[in-house]
Design a protein that fits this description.
The complex is a heterodimer of chains A (360) and B (518). Chain A has 360 residues and is mainly α. Chain A is built from 13 helices and 2 strands; from the N terminus they run βαααααααααααααβ. The radius of gyration of chain A is 22 Å and the shape is globular. Helix content of chain B is 34%, strand content 24%. Chain B is built from 18 helices and 23 strands. Chain B is globular. Classes of the chains: A mainly alpha (360), B alpha/beta (518). Chain A binds chain B through residues 5-9, 217-220, 222, 225-226, 229-230, 232-233, 235-240, 353, 355-357, and chain B through 17-18, 57, 59, 71-73, 305-307, 326-331, 337, 339, 341, 344-351, 355, 358-360, 362, 367, 370-372, 401.
Chain lengths: 360, 518
């Protein structure tokens, strides 16, 4: 008889083995999936994981997709360490993209060096303020942040749609719901010439470093951890829950807002309805897969960036539906959460107790 | 006289992950015997009790009931056989009447006839001197009366073995007397009683025999009346630990802390509101507050620590009003606090001792411009560990891995090393082994001798009498006068714990020693 038994202490090995195990299980499931769809499974995996990275251009694209994921994930890590379940990175991201676009379009006549910082700052501020709404609702009205942030995501999406169909719509755009192209001064410089990779990736890596330092070296990071692990101890020690909650949401919002701003002023160059393929949601998987550690989320964001590219590749090469990306990401999260059970528990094979009372 | 063996346990073993709670326990209870089960917290008393009451099954070993082998299917089965249990935390519905609560645990046939049940409750309770009105609602009963409901419930089911888990910890001294009279009567009528406690004097007064447990094993059996409490304590704690502290008299200085009409309305429906508490605390003295749990002790601690805020002027430290200051600001003014809950308030369970040092000692040069000074933090944690004899595998071990006593020594050490002007400690030795309790008492006295004021909130009257120069009691959010310990008889303290003191006692306390109240 198999039984789950609580471990005396949590397993450190499983803490890191769990994401790898989840990845292996996801790949195995994917093999079965390809076979069920009548596709060559080995070919499928090749197109998903290897072909997208077969040249320098592919790696640049990886970095491009990684940047917004990592920025959002860095912000969410700050919240999740404090056990503030902010699901709203998508909304912060969209508001960041929207208001960065507003600033960029307002400043289209200018060409000073300050235009780009203003655009990015506009995005970060908008994201931060959007996140702050949920923080205030939590600290002053005890609203559950999971619900409020999800709802705010939909509001943000609809504000963005309204804007591209209305006030921000390009009058010369043949009726397409999109803004004018940004002026050159509002565009992010390229990191590698002749690719689409821009310096947004540096912001993201910097954000990961900030998160790493925050939680290993600073008192604020310590306070956030205490709040997350034991809010009664935080109150006892005098770490103000309101102040810390606001801080975590503001930082998360600013980082996701910056990611949104970097998308519109980077590879896209204008505001379009499909500015995010769900970066803000995927970032949640990144945080859990990356164990809420700086290095972990960098690696996890690369892997999940690859699922976006692999999904596109499978659409083109093997004629599979777009949903394949979401399916992979969902499988990965599902297996991860399952494997995480083994951090606290272990499987034991045991014979039924001999003197145990029989239940009729 | 050779009485029949009512219950016999042989070689009971119960293994939990990482801990062998019972390790080959032998225990025999004869008919009509009051048998004490002694041991410190974590010695395995509760596990053994749950096995006897059928809540859990032993991994090894056998039970014999009136000479026949016994395999319990569950508590209902145990009750059917005549094993009754009174838990430390009562299992009563507050919104139901006494009779309804009792009916719930009876077979349907007995429960249905209410008037007969009422008569039976009156009869049984009167017979054992525990007056109870069956129609009263449980929420209107005092703690002592609720305990009677639990006991009467067992008696109505004609229990021949009654298990009582630390029954006196929630009672005033007077209530304890009444309870003991009842138990003696039960015993003389042939009912066996298993009395679980760690209060040695009570066990000596009441029990015929005692079995002592330490770390899951039986370490001794004795007739408590024939041996000294020190001998019993030795069996409980083993050799090489001192059993008590010698306390020198205090030399109080200036008034440091004063509470002026401090009130606090609890927002928790099960909390207790504080009502106009007046108190003065001088530097260099230990003042004790006794009381039955849940009478406002926790609210008072929170009002002092800054976890809740009160009217600014109602709380003054060295003449400065601090009622509106938050917990961090009060720490900076020199207030240190040891809360009742060690894990989950006093320390973060999953964090290391080093990290838990930072929890409250952050102002002792452990943080510089927002950055942690790792070396200093480790140094501080190591110093706590060495000075206060905290037994652990290292300062990187998580707080949850320490025993209650060692963690408490760590927390006391962390607060004491901050050289506070005022230390507020709540139940500092609750569930702590005797050796650690002595170390903790010594730390409190040392702090007092360095000129700090110590406020000791405790349910342990021995501890209060031993350490405090002045003491009083709290009841329903009212504080009694604080009088010199030497002038306070245990009888009067018992009355005060039950709320029997002049409610405007405050004035007399402010004017000085409370001789006026007689």
């Amino acid at each position: 008889m198999l039984s789950l038994e609580r471990r005396a202490t949590d397993s450190r090995t499983m803490q890191w083995a769990s994401p790898l195990l989840a990845l292996v299980l996801t790949v195995i499931t994917a093999l079965g999936l390809f076979m069920a769809l009548g596709k060559d499974p080995v070919e499928g995996l090749k197109f998903f994981f290897l072909i997208p990275l077969s040249d320098a251009h592919g790696w640049a694209e990886l970095g491009l997709k990684m940047a917004p994921l990592l920025l959002c994930a860095a912000g969410l890590t700050i919240c999740y360490r404090a056990k503030l379940w902010n699901i709203g990175a998508e909304g912060h991201f969209l508001m960041g993209a929207l208001w960065a676009s507003v600033v960029a379009l307002q400043l289209s006549e200018h060409s000073g060096f300050w235009v780009l910082p203003a655009v990015l700052l506009g995005g970060a501020l908008a994201g931060a303020l959007w996140a702050w709404i949920a923080a205030v609702l939590k600290t002053h009205f005890h609203c559950n942040e999971i619900l409020t942030t999800i709802m705010l995501n939909y509001i943000a999406l609809n504000l963005l749609l309204y804007s591209v169909h209305g006030p921000l719509k390009d009058p010369m755009g043949f009726g397409f719901p999109q803004s004018e192209m940004f002026a050159a001064a509002a565009l992010l410089p390229k990191l590698i010439p002749d690719t689409r990779l821009h310096i947004g990736l540096l912001f993201a890596l910097l954000a990961a470093v900030v998160v790493g330092v925050l939680f290993t070296r600073t008192f604020i990071g310590f306070q956030l951890k205490v709040l997350g692990q034991d809010n009664r101890a935080a109150a006892f020690a005098g770490f103000g829950a309101r102040r810390l909650t606001w801080l975590a949401f503001l930082l998360a919002g600013a980082m996701a807002g910056l990611a949104g701003a970097s998308e519109v002023s980077g590879p896209i160059g204008q505001l379009v309805p499909q500015v995010s393929p769900g970066y803000g949601y995927t970032a949640i998987i990144v945080v859990f897969l990356g164990r809420m550690q700086a290095l972990g989320i960098v690696l996890a964001s690369a892997l999940l960036a690859l699922t976006f590219m692999g999904g596109e590749m499978l659409q083109i090469a093997m004629n599979l539906p777009r949903a394949i990306t979401g399916l992979f990401q969902g499988l990965l999260l599902f297996y991860l959460l399952t494997c995480d059970a083994f951090i606290h528990y272990r499987l034991r094979l045991r014979s039924p107790a001999p003197n145990k009372a029989q239940v009729a | 006289m050779l009485a029949a063996e009512r219950l016999k346990l042989q070689n009971i073993v119960k293994q939990y992950p990482g801990c062998r709670a019972n390790d080959g326990v032998q225990l025999t209870v004869t008919a009509g015997e009051i048998h004490a089960l002694l041991g410190e917290n974590g010695a395995g008393k509760s596990t053994l009790m749950k096995i006897i009451y059928g809540v859990i099954q032993p991994d090894e070993g056998s039970l014999t009931w009136n000479g026949r082998p016994l395999v319990l299917q569950g508590p209902a089965h145990a009750r059917e056989l005549g094993i009754g249990m009174v838990f430390q935390h009562f299992s009563l519905f507050e919104t139901l009447t006494v009779a309804e609560n009792i009916a719930l645990s009876l077979p349907a046939a007995q429960a249905r006839n209410r008037s007969r049940l009422d008569a039976r409750i009156r009869e049984v309770s009167a017979h054992y001197g525990m007056a109870l009105e069956p129609r009263r609602y449980v929420n209107t009963l005092s703690i002592g009366e609720r305990q009677r409901v639990e006991i009467v419930r067992c008696l109505i089911q004609e229990s021949s073995l009654l298990i009582l888990d630390e029954p006196t910890s929630v009672l005033t001294p007077q209530e304890v007397e009444v309870l003991f009279r009842t138990l003696r009567q039960l015993s003389s009528e042939g009912c066996s009683i298993l009395f679980i406690s760690h209060k040695l004097q009570e066990v000596r007064d009441l029990c015929h025999r005692a079995t002592v447990l330490r770390q899951g094993k039986v370490t001794g059996e004795c007739r408590p009346a024939e041996v000294s409490t020190d001998e019993i304590a030795r069996m409980m704690v083993g050799n090489d630990t001192p059993l008590s502290t010698q306390v020198s008299p205090a030399e109080p200085g200036e008034t440091l802390l004063s509470l002026n009409e401090l009130s606090y309305i609890s927002r928790d429906p099960f909390g207790t509101s504080l009502d106009k508490i007046n108190m003065q605390l001088r530097a260099g003295e230990i003042v004790g507050i006794a009381g039955v749990a849940g009478n406002g002790q926790d609210e008072l601690l929170r009002a002092l620590s800054g976890e809740v805020r009160v009217v600014d002027s109602s709380l003054q430290l060295g003449g400065v009003a601090i009622g509106r200051r938050d917990a961090a600001q009060r720490r900076r003014l020199g207030i240190a606090v040891v809360p009742e809950e060690r894990l989950g308030r006093g320390a973060v369970p999953a964090m290391s001792l080093a990290e838990n040092t930072l929890l409250t000692a952050y102002d002792r040069d452990l943080v510089k411009r927002g950055l942690l000074k790792g070396g200093k933090i480790r140094e501080y944690a190591t110093r706590i560990r060495e000075l206060f004899g905290v037994r652990c595998s290292g300062i990187d071990s998580p707080a949850a891995s320490l025993s209650g006593g060692n963690l408490q020594k760590f927390i006391i050490g962390r607060e004491a090393l901050q050289q506070p002007r005022l230390l507020v400690a709540s139940h500092p030795t609750w569930g702590v082994d005797v050796g650690s309790a002595v170390a903790i008492h010594e730390a409190l006295v040392a702090l007092r001798d360095q000129g700090a004021a110590v406020l000791l909130i405790s349910e342990d009257l021995d501890e209060l009498y031993q350490l405090c120069n002045r003491m009083g009691a709290i009841c329903s959010g009212h504080l009694s006068p604080l009088v010199p310990t030497a002038e306070l008889s245990i009888e009067r303290l018992g009355q005060w714990m039950a709320g029997d003191f002049p409610k405007d006692a405050a004035e007399s306390d402010n004017k000085g020693p409370a001789h006026a109240i007689a």
